[in-house]
Request: fold
Amino acid sequence: MTEFQVPERHAQLLAYAQSLALPSGWKIEISGDEIIMTAGPSVIHQRNLLIVREQFDAHRPADLMPSENTDLASPNTGKLRNPALTYIPLSVVELGGNEVPAELAEIAVEIVPPSNPENDLVGKVRDHPLMGIPLYLVIDPREGSLTLHSEPGGGVYHRRWSGRFGDRVPVPEPFAFELTTGELIRYPV
Reply:
């Protein structure tokens, strides 16, 4: 396969995915030759995301903006991911369109859904470092756990911090703060 076939295949998959008539609230992601469709988030997901976003917003650099459910595209790797929350440069507005180059994202934050945890816990841990996303925070309300992946290189994250709800997550630059997690709630058992 030549380096030009991956972006062409990505464009074909993206065109097909965008042609689908999805129910309201559903979103599409692409990982290699796989199209992943996920349902809209629950109120527990939304509440946990609000708790996290408010803290990131308080520590975000002035040249970054928060964005929820933004398509982060990496055509050269054949990936399109849509994190619950990301921080991207304000300058991406000048690019227009619905996709943002993944390598411009400073972080991807996911709240693991009960229906398809492997997508966030395995697929995105595999895809995000390949896409050039420097930080990946995974919040798992099923288990009450958190994982922060960092230092991508060679297609993998080289550093991993793990904790439980109630722990303080050491978020590195460009945010440089400790995320408090005592107010996060778990899904009902």
